[in-house]
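Model the whole thing, not chain by chain.
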Amino acid sequence: ETGVTQSPTHLIKTRGQQVTLRCSSQSGHNTVSWYQQALGQGPQFIFQYYREEENGRGNFPPRFSGLQFPNYSSELNVNALELDDSALYLCASSPRGVGELFFGEGSRLTVL
Amino acid sequence: GEDVEQSLFLSVREGDSSVINCTYTDSSSTYLYWYKQEPGAGLQLLTYIFSNMDMKQDQRLTVLLNKKDKHLSLRIADTQTGDSAIYFCAERTDSWGKLQFGAGTQVVVTP
């Protein structure tokens, strides 16, 4: 519906492993941002990308990293997974400077 | 979401109006948003308002913004059972994509 697609939808990892989550932004949207939503909480901003450059970061450690590709799709990588990384990871896309900001359905990560 | 506050729970009867309230702290907010989240799903953009507006109406939804008090509200007219969900208020302070969310208001619609 929104045109923002994320994969995988669910995944299970163990502590210490690494994970890559993917996001395809809505057509024409050149800004992508990532959020972490722990159970029962509001989403927390991780970082955002514009034209393949990171231009804003929230209070997350360096083991959270990302990429944006020329087609504006994006990846979120998390190294050395911890139990507290278990959450719903949401990707959002928008055209820069415009109000609409649409989210995908998220990737639910469980760390055991 | 410490800078954006919402009440945690609202119960409303089907057919009544719902009003969800939110307060924010950053006076430089450019846009303010309301999102809906159903169980196990992502965030659905319901509506948003530019900071130089006082009101926005979109079908059953009415957003009111009081910049002086940094207060935002969402009114849902003729509330239906399908409106049961968690509603998030969020503020945007840049021209990119960084939003500050509240903790969400759980709305339960009873027959």
